[in-house]
Amino acid sequence: MIVFPNAKINIGLNIVEKRPDGYHNIESCFYPVGWSDALEITVADHFDFQSDGIAIPGNNADNLCVKAYNMLAADYALPPVQMHLLKAVPIGAGLGGGSSDAAFAIKALDQQFNLKISFEKQLDYARRLGSDCAFFILNKPAYCFEKGDRFEEIDLKLQGKWIVMVNPGIHISTIEAYAGINPQPGRSDLRNVLQQPVSKWKDQVKNDFEATLFLKYPLLQKIKDDLYESGAAYAAMSGSGSTLYGIFEKEKDLEKHFSKFKVWQGFLS
User: How far apart (Å, rounded) are the C-alpha atoms in residues 139 and 123?
Assistant: First the structure.
């Protein structure tokens, strides 16, 4: 079986408060995009995990796909498999690539071996692996809250709009991103703001990480400015960065314009 774990963008990211457990409560819209990895799972004589494409740091045992398999194998009679991941979505880029890989591994194993795991239980498994893993079980536009692991579907229709995503290769850790953050509760409900036309989002839909990270990495501000100058109706950083994106009303090929960076562009669905 081959599946294609896709990335997501954050449309707005408000950091509401710090939790007693050390995490932060957020509110954001997660929106799936077409930038994808490829994950193949086949029955084998013994378990094995291999990856190609972008180098994945750490040991295989720490990979979320491996953890997903081991978690399900503890509860179900899974045979040994070989997992082969072709990594194309940048790592540590605010796109949820590793989380998506894990969620798609859960869904693929369930389907391939007819485990009949309920949707709610798949969500529970995904939440054990990471805050935003659960979103990729749903994999539809969603308003996400608490740690980003709770969500409700949102009626946000961006189908047919064009997105350009630019990753400058700056790795920003979660610890670094949160270092300059002062949580701000009590702002306008993001769900209501997003019902306005995309052209109205610029001054109202914010990513709280931008303020401090743009000062530290001026290139991020420049890329955002370039996206607007190229005609984007809305541009922002996704997650804690460093990927930025622009949403355009019409197709706009900017691959050459951002030729120094990793670029993915295509229509939203």
Answer: 11
pLDDT single digits (tens) 79-121: 999 999 999 999 989 999 999 999 999 999 999 999 999 999 9
What residue spans define the domains of the chain? Answer: 2-153, 162-267
Please list the active-site residues.
8, 132
User: 267 to each of 132, 159, 164, 165, 248, how far by Cα in Å?
Assistant: 23, 7, 9, 11, 9
pLDDT tens-digit map of 175-220: 899 988 989 887 889 999 999 999 999 999 999 999 999 999 999 9
> For the domain with range 162-267, which CATH number is right: 3.40.50.2000, 3.30.70.890, 3.30.565.10, 3.40.1390.10?
3.30.70.890
Core vs surface per residue 30-69: b (16+ CB within 10 A) or e = bbbbebbbbbebeeeeebebebeeeebeeeeeebbbbbbb
Q: Is the pTM of this model over 0.90?
A: yes
What is the CATH code for 2-153? Answer: 3.30.230.10
State the SS3 of 19-37: CCCCCEEEEEEEEEEEEEC
Query: Which residues belong to the annotated binding site for ATP?
Result: 90-100
Nearest to 131 by CA among 149, 145, 152: 149
Measured at the CA of 63, the angle between CA 53 and CA 4, to 5 degrees, comes to 50
